[in-house]
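Notes on consecutive records. When two proteins share a document, each keeps its own sequence and its own token line. Never mix them. Below: protein one.
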Amino acid sequence: MAAESTAVPDTSASATSVSSAAPPTHASVLREPVVSTPSLVADDGPVVFDVDQLNVYYRDFRAVRDVSLQVHQHEITAFIGPSGCGKTTVLRCFNRMNDLIDGCRVTGGLAYHGVDLYDDRVDAVEVRKRIGMVFQKPNPFPKSIYDNVAFGPKINGTKKKGELDDVVESALTRAALWDEVKDRLGKSAMGMSGGQQQRLCIARTIAGDPEVVLMDEPCSALDPIATARIEDLMQELKSDYTIVIVTHNMQQAARVSDRTAFFTAEVHSETDTRTGLLVEYDRTDKIFSNPSDERTENYVTGRFG
């Protein structure tokens, strides 16, 4: 007999209950609002991700070891550290993007509102609907600005033109882009500036109505003015979304994040390979002003990295 599907939490405010008479399918979604259990609640609010002794392997090689941290709702969490320390690898675990890499496997615990994201019964596609991702390099589709933003809602079943129009306008407005593009929605997204393209990618992500937005070095390819606009946008969006970013820019982490995780890498002397590990995770002001670990202090003060 097939195993019953484990539901992925739907935390949207408009969620309604599903009749208990209908058996869940592999892609089923829990429509009831999630209430975090006491063990997953910190003094400063609910925990969205609870990571416990997370390890990531590429076949026999352990790329990341024993990462434990909690990501809190409506906060910006920054991952910092030198190249090769596992920041992006851990970020990609949060919406199971590493599933797409041949030979990659994850061990340990990674719970989303108490649901094990790596349970065999959890549908990775459903996970990515809840947990969107913005990549390092802007990657708009070779379509119009309108069709870029409408792409996800169309796939998810929004077909009526009026409804799509509302979704597109809302997403572009929240991404601080509507006023710049409202008169050229039918134009190709490829003609936009780099900063506009990245904000379009953010609009495309939030048009799918996720709860979490992951950002992998979202400003690394942008100029300082565009970077400032993205940082301002992150601050505006965190009232509606939980945001996790990877950044090499320590000043950016200090400016925008509520909590910061510092990763480093252990170099294996015999193989010259690197295994990433989490050194310290705390409030951002503490990480940058009074870190607990000497390795963190050396990194944030520029002594290495």
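Protein two starts on the next line and is unrelated to protein one.
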Amino acid sequence: MKKTEALEKLDAAMRLQNKSRDTRKTYRGWVERYLLFVEETKPQGKAADKLNSFISQLVSSDPQPALSTQKQAFFSVLYFYKHVLDANMDGANPPSGRRDQKTFNILSRDQIVKLIQTLPKEYKLIASLLYGTGMRIGECLALRIKDVDFEHGFLYVQEGKGDKARRVDLPPTLVSNLKAQVEYARHVYEFDQRTGMAGVYIPHLYAKKKPEAATSFEWFRLFPNPNYGKDPDSGVKRRHHVYTWDVQDAFQEARKAAKLPIYTTPHTLRHCYATHYLEKVLRDLPPIPNIGRFARDLLREKMGHVDANTTDVYIHLAMPKNVITNHSPLSELE
């Protein structure tokens, strides 16, 4: 099978499984890199052996990629073999090792207020949602009108990391601003309808089942982009949501203008949400057995973490400070 044909079949398989654009882009990128590796090095053995050789080469590269990146590469190529080539992958070994330990710079509550106040008007609500719900920037921007449930006080994340969906609490203080944003989106939607623009992007299988959804207000973006863009799948000119890089650029300008000492990105607010949420839970809950695990499990569900170890990173950041935990031997010196 030629490389071009193989990649086309990969794209088709992923669309049939309704994988998100980000996932499709990631998988395709790794498969292209793998096929180039096979072409250049011509590794011997069956498919599983070739995949193992590719991962070994990746692990030994300098600088060595993070374990999460190694696993991303492995499972991307594994998907290609299983769903495109229908190959037997017995003997393919996923990367293993110790997870990278991460520490995060956390903004204080006063710094968060200063940051949000400094951001341009069109990004204030986005920043407030990131801090108020712990959503990733891509999850927030991908919200559609139908994902906002004012009656029950929830937001539904349908295009989460790893194509996983979850529900997050809608902060009561943002209800009025969100209702205003829905009305703004309605205004943009009605303009597109009057001018005959193509509808928004709809996941492949649902678009085939209900093509009319693309032009319905329920599927319209909560944060529509002021400009049109070309759909990378179909080439159709349509309205996308606000671009991630525009929000990231706005954050950098706001951080400088607010003179914040900590490097700040939209994802920083997700870390702040997790840490401040745990701080409150650990402070306000009664001293029940295994309170740390209970708080971690609560946060894990809200953050959409697959691995509990990912959530554990925040525990030490949120532990209550007291004379024991915050003690330094330096204070004992005369």
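For the record: Residues 144 and 222 are 5 Å apart (CA to CA).
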